[in-house]
Amino acid sequence: MMIFSKAICLFSIFSIVASKPISTSQARADDVGLVGNRRAELNITVGSVLDTLHGQVNTILPQIQNLANVNKETLSPLIDDLTGALDNAAHDLHRIHASGRVHSTTTRQCDCDDDDDTANLIAEIVKEITVTLDNVVVVANDLPVVGPLFYQVDRSLNGVLSGVEKLVSGALNLVSVLLGNVAGLLESVGLGLTRGALGH
């Protein structure tokens, strides 16, 4: 009976040891990864996210503008690149918001210059995208895929605007003023969510 009890005890100990799949080295690696991710989150700012996005947009849009033959096969990959860049920016803005680093144009006067820069940069990004899509409409208005592709851009761009507004309260009011002369284009290319976010 004692031998049987010892056997059960040894089996229990073995089961406990075997149930720990994470090694010490793996745990340390995970800890390092978490610290690295946290540092990355602390280093990103609204300005850095928008600067990165603007650089990507300035790489993608000329390729769309220079398409010799606009069709589903040539346009879709570039629109996917554009929406991917917008989605990544929206995700990074969400990470900043989740960290609690939020400021308001109405409560922190010392940030007014930064807020103006943010509004100007967002306005430039929206305008460049809108003008490029309008040019696509001119040459490929009868292309069935244009509507769904532009809706993807609209949804992703709206995600960026939403992220900015959560972080810089009042920024979209400034953007709306800056984009007053392109409100008609926003409607003509079907960017309804974007237009609504800007109050046009």
Automatic annotation (TrEMBL):
Signal peptide: 1-19
InterPro entries listed in its UniProt record: DUF6987
Location of the DUF6987 domain: 74-186
Keywords for this protein: Signal
Pfam families named in the record: DUF6987 (PF22485)
Protein name (record): DUF6987 domain-containing protein
Organism name: Tetrapyrgos nigripes
